[in-house]
Amino acid sequence: MAIWRKIHETLRGEITEGLYKTGDRLPTEKELSERFGVNRHTVRRALAEMTAEGAISVRRGSGAYVAEGVVDYRLGQRVRFSQNVTELGRTPAHRLVRSEARAPDDREAEHLRLRPGAEVLVLEMVSEVDGLPVLYAAHSFPAARFPRLAQDFDETRSITASLRRYGVIDYTREWTRITARSPSRKVAAQLRQIESQPVLRVEALNLDMSGEPIEHAVGWWASARTQFVV
């Protein structure tokens, strides 16, 4: 294991064990260099990884501080990212990575009950909490029912608000499946984390109030920044 990685794991462990609490200032780069017997560049690399993971925040001229804890994300019949995060007193944001209309894969066709020849509209997006990415997801919708959903999302920055434009006033979660995975290079890059850090793969299906499927989603959550509450 690289030396910077050992420093990273040691400091993360000390935060987890409560040696450093939320808002506490970590030792300076000089102090950490002396403690681990390495140069400051090595310490800097470890701190940079912790910053990217959301474990610490660096304040210019002041030092590194333990960041606010992981996001307690509530799963239930109605799952709304922005509402969940806002209720925690934190700031949500979404960034659309790409959108495309294409033929569905087998799972999309099955779960969205699509007829032969029907297309899905896929929105790939990154969702953030306080400026840090916690979720990279591909949301698939029946293209015939929601033909301009990508443009609507550009205007509303909300899937829920965009769906209202098509008369979907409310919708509920039919099921959620969660598995632990190693991220691909693409997923790790979008979440700004290292590839060795596990992610939580979440597959879900949402229905409108008449029971029609409207959204099939597959998302990858940064496990170091999120815990689910059921």
Automatic annotation (TrEMBL):
Species lineage: Bacteria, Pseudomonadati, Pseudomonadota, Alphaproteobacteria, Rhodobacterales
GO molecular function, one term: DNA-binding transcription factor activity
Record-given protein name: GntR family transcriptional regulator, phosphonate transport system regulatory protein
Domain called HTH gntR-type: residue spans: 1-69
Keyword Transcription among UniProt keywords: yes
Keywords carried by this UniProt record: DNA-binding, Transcription, Transcription regulation
GO terms under biological process: negative regulation of DNA-templated transcription
